[in-house]
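Exercise 7.
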Amino acid sequence: MSKIITLGEIMLRLSPQGCNRFVQVDNFNVIWGGGEANVAVSCANYGHDAVFVSKLPTHEIGQAAVNALRRYGVDTRHIARGGNRVGIYYCETGASMRPSKVIYDRAGSAIAEADPADFDFDAIMEGADWFHWSGITPAISDKAAEITRLACEAAKRHGVTVSVDLNFRKKLWTSEKAISIMRPLMKYVDVCIGNEEDAELCLGFKPDADVEGGNTDAEGYKGIFKAMMKEFGFKYVVSTLRESYSATHNGWKAMIYNGEEFYQSKRYDIDPIIDRVGGGDSFSGGLIHGLLTMPTQGEALEFAVAASALKHTINGDFNLVSDAEVKALAGGNANGRVQR
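Solution. The predicted structure, written as tokens, is:
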């Protein structure tokens, strides 16, 4: 299997049990997660050598985060240790017409205040096949944005394929700031993943599609995919297409373009959703695995969409499914019968 590097922040997620609201509980479940950490766990579950790069404090809470990754086989040797705190986010799971809610408490986290000297990216990228990052990491701080750039440069020096999940987070930065940081980073990227909102807010591209109204016909995306590929030189442009009927009922599909042909996946009707946090990360992890191991972009995309559909049924940020389970769903086995 392949060596896959991811760079980002793993956070302590505190969530009420079930669909309870923040204001009605007196205890929280401890869950670990965060964009690129979630991708690393997915890739490790598919049998790859998955390496997560970050910075965490030396105290026991920092160690608990490291241990959460080690539990699922992620290589943590390049996590720098130091700094004062682990980022926290609170997540309230919605239901029906009540949306899920996230509150961040991550300012001043170890990775946000990390220095380039904390990482030897040439050593980290040595022998790697793939490097993945998301728009969340450069949004954390200006220092984190600089570290992201240095990692991308090292990846290119070592001939590593680079993917990005645009992942715009309005609670972390403005669209103007995002565009100023993200557009220059695109010259390092081979595989660009994002939805229509991410492309507009991070890169300034807008598709001709009414996603809020449920109109996610692929035709509206073809023009933007071609324009993005022409401007930035991507090898693949990929978009997830989510139809949000309620907090617990979504339609889910995706499309991919390799400069020659467009491919749209089958659509999954996900009802009920157990936990959609990490859904996009599970898609990215599945896509990376698919593009590395499967002969066509269509097969890679079907694997990624099936992997993400399964993630929506699992509590927590991590997608705890195997290659075989995803392939069974992608192959049409969606009845949920007990496996005996």
